[in-house]
Structure formats: C-alpha cells, structure tokens
Amino acid sequence: MKKRIFRSICVVALFSMLIATWTATSIIGQETNRKTHEDVRREVHYLAAGLEEDGSEYLNELEKLEKTNLADSDNRISRITWITKDGTVIYDSYTSPSSLPNHADRPEVKAALEKGEGETFRVSDTLAEQTYYYAKRLSNGTVIRVASTTRTDLASVIHTVPAMLVMAGVIFAITMALADAQTKRIVKPINELDPDNPQPDQVYEELYPLVRSLQKQKLTIQQQMQTLRKKQEEFTAITENMKEGFIVVDSKANVISYNSSAVRILGVDIESMEHSENGQEHRNVLSFNRSASFREVVNDALNGERGQQNLELNGRYYQLIASPVVESGDKRGAVLVILDVTEQQNREELRREFTANVSHELKTPLTSISGYAEIMKDGLVRPEDMGRFSEKIYSEAQRLITLVGDIIKLSRLDEEKVEIEKTDVDLCQIAAGVVTRLKETAHTTGIEISLTAKPAVVNGASQILDEMIFNLCENAIKYNRPHGRVDVVVDEINHHPTVIVKDTGIGIAEKDQDRIFERFYRVDKSHSRQIGGTGLGLSIVKHGAIYHKAKVEMDSKVGVGTTIRIVFP
C-alpha cells in the first residue's frame, strides 16, 4: 500500500506538473493572442479613422514617421493592406500592391464587404505560425485589413521544452522526497486505525459524520429537485392547455414565462424575435405587443395596481388583465392573462341591435293603430269608411301579436329554456301538415306548392320543427314570382334526415346571404312591408336548427330562386 500511494503521488505530481505547464503555456498563448487581436482591432479602427479623414495620405505619413511602429514584439509583425470593393490591393505595407492577387475571395474581406467587418485565422503549413486577419469596411466601400503573425500554442510549447525538462527534473526530485515523507505520514494513522472501534483521538474520525451528512443532503436535494421538476411540468401542462394567453414578467418587465396561446393571440414570431434579440437571456414583454393599451396595463401591474384593457387584434376582441405579484411588500413582477371576448362582444352588439330593431318594429304597428284610433275618436271618419279603418287596426294588431309571439319564441330559444319534450318526430308528417295549411295561401297568390316526402324521423320538439318548416315554406311563397313553384322535399340523404324547400322566386344576392338569418334583416324592406311578416322567420329557423343541432344550407341566385336545406344529425 505504501508503494502504491508513493507511486500514485509521484504520478499525480508528474502529470499535474505537465498539465500545469501545458495549461500555463496555453493560457499565456491565449492571452497573448487575445491581446494581439485587441491590438489589431484597435489598430484597424485607428487606421480606418485616419483613412476616412485623410485618405491615402494618412498611410504615406504613417510610413514616413515610423515604419516599424506596428510591431509589438519580435514574434509578431503587423501587416497593413488596403483593398478596393472589387478585391484589388491598392496598398500593402510589406510588398508592392501590383504583385499581390485579387483579395475579393479572402474570408475576412468578404465578411467586411457584407457585414462591415470580418476576421479569420490562417495557420502555416509547418504549424509554427498563425496569422490573424481583421478587416473593416470604410464608408467609401474600400476595406482596410491588418494581419498579425504569432507563434502557435504548439510552437510556443516546443520553444520552452528545454527549460521545461530542466524544471521538471528538479521538481520531480523534490516531489519524490516529499511523496515519501507524505506517504509515511498518511499510512501510519491508517494502519493504526481500528475500523471496528475507532477512537475519538484517532485520525479521520471527523470524516464519518461528514460522509453521512453529505449523503443525507444529497438525498434531500434529489427529492427537492424531483418535486420542483414535477411542479414545473404540471405548470407547463396547465398553461399550454389554456386557450387564454398567459404571460409572467419580472419587475423589469422581462418575460419569465408564456404559453403558446399568448404567442398565437398576439401574433408573435418567436424565431424572429429571438434572432433580433441577439441571444439575450430575457426579452421585454413590450416586444410581444407595443400598443399603448398593452403598455399601460403592464405599467399599472408593475406599479402594484390591477390593470385591465381591451384590445382588438386581427378582427377579434380581447380583454387584457394584468395583476401585480407582491411578496413581503416588494413588487416582484406581474401576471398577464389575455381573454378572448369576441363572442361576448358580438353577442352584446347583437343584443343592442336587437333591442333597437324590436323598438322600431313594435313602434310601427302601434303608431299606425294609434293614428287610426285617434282619427276615429275625433269623428273624422265617415260611416262608410269605419269598416276599412277597423280592418287596418285589426291587421296592425294581428301583426303586433305575431311579432311579440316570434320575439318570445326567439327569446326562449336563445335562453335554451324550451320546455317542450323531445320525442321521435316524422318530418314527413310535419311537412305534409304545413303544405296543407299553406295551400290556400299559395293558391291565392298563384303559387304552386308540392310535397315529395319519405319517412324521416328525428328526435326533437315537434312544435319548433313545425315552425321551422312553416316559416321556410311561407317565405318561399311570399318572395316568389307570379305563377312560381315551391317544392318541399323530405328524405334521408346520406343517413341524415333532410328537409329541402326550393322556390322559383326572386332569389337572394350573394352579399345578403350571410345576413338573412339575422333578426329583422330584410333584403328588400319596401317589398317586405307590402307582403307583411315580422322579419324573424328565418331567425327562428336558424335558432331552431341550433336547438336540434342541425345544419342550415342555402343556395340562391337572383332571378332564379332559392333552395334551403335543413340537415339533421
């Protein structure tokens, strides 16, 4: 054991000496190279400034004053070269420019022409010397380059080998003597140590609690790391599955964490952003969005106040909520949540529009009724006209009743509180009943209505289904041309119960087709007033389809006619 320890110490000492020598030589070489690079860069910047100011006269004056002032030591010589845009050498401090080849393909020159500056290394074939080139583009497009040649690390080591060998011999001899003494000192207490009954005054007794403490600490750290990793994974899983945008920033507004929804909502190009940040560890949250509203809500949160703003991005509406993160009274950062409120915004807009339309539609028949009644009250109606005035009042009252009824139906469908039990309903029977009720109306207006039906059963509310088919057929009759047709088809198409109502009427312009199912929307308001109706029929069809999870499809061409299909699941 003694010999093994002795040999180990000697070997370790020898290798340590070699490694230390090599490391020291390398560090010195690297430091020398670093200083050389700094000097060369500084020199290039000085030369560039002089050339920008005085042009070629600067180099001539510099050469006259001191031809050797670019050498820092006897193993590094600087060389100045001035190159045009096309790579032609117009000045060289070593040789005649005309004897030099075109430098346009030199890496450092190409980089300088493209990026403003460039650098490269070239090692000699003997590996004894290395040359560092640094080039900078001037404002006129020319390139000034300085080259410095130094020994390579290998050459520097070889140069110091004789001295290293002498020093190694001396150190090795001293090491052997010290190793022998140290071996005896180490081995003696170990040999005298009783492993079964170690005494307090024996050497290395302190190592036992240290080892046990380290083992316990290691186990604790492993458990803590595992817990932390698990919590991080849970946090990431939760935030990545949120449809809301989520951003966490520190007290300096630098982003700590964010989810993919935030990137999608704000339209952030993460790859471009990382490239533009030049490798910075953190990016400012304002790089996600630079709008005034975004900046204001972030500043509010970082100042310790809860901020809230509305944003409109890419045609959608978002609510940005920022809450401060405070710990022990110190502002640590903020949490930003981006909520998509487009649907709420649209519903609110529709609600306002619906309220305005309802007010208008209710006011019209009430005004008419009030006007006729006032004339009759004042005795301004001749006896023979009383019947006509009464008929108008009755007609407007019926229109008002129908309108209120349709509004109630829509409200119930909107609130999904239709208290009608769903049963298996044959669409064929409902369509037959609708066609029968409308035959007289169709005949009066010169419209031919026909039914082609096969059994098609759906699970639904028969009253709502009846209203849907009735409204479709009634509209097809009202907006038809004289002596036109309305064809009603009920069938199972691709295993889906389907109702088709096709007419040969006036048709619907393409620009209006997306809006005809809106409440009170009329393509031709004057014509709609003449033929009556509340403007809610197709809206009831749409909401009834939603209630039954059905799809409404439409094909229409102006002057040809309209086909509407209700496809049930």
Describe this structure as you would to a colleague.
This protein has 569 residues and is an alpha+beta fold. The protein is built from 15 helices and 17 strands. The protein has helices spanning 2-54, 56-65, 107-115, 153-159, 161-192, 207-240, 260-266, 270-276, 292-302, 342-377, 386-414, 427-444, 462-478, 525-531, 537-547; strands at 77-83, 89-92, 117-123, 129-137, 143-151, 245-250, 255-258, 307-313, 316-327, 330-340, 423-426, 448-453, 457-460, 485-493, 496-503, 551-557, 561-567. A five-stranded antiparallel sheet has the order 2-1-5-4-3. The protein has a five-stranded antiparallel sheet with strand order 7-6-10-9-8, with helices on both faces. A hairpin with a 3-residue loop joins strand 16 and strand 17. The longest helix is centred in the N-terminal third of the chain and has 53 residues, at 2-54. It is elongated, with a radius of gyration of 46 Å. The two termini are 88 Å apart. Mean pLDDT is 76; it is low at 70-76, 193-203, 276-281 and 525-530.
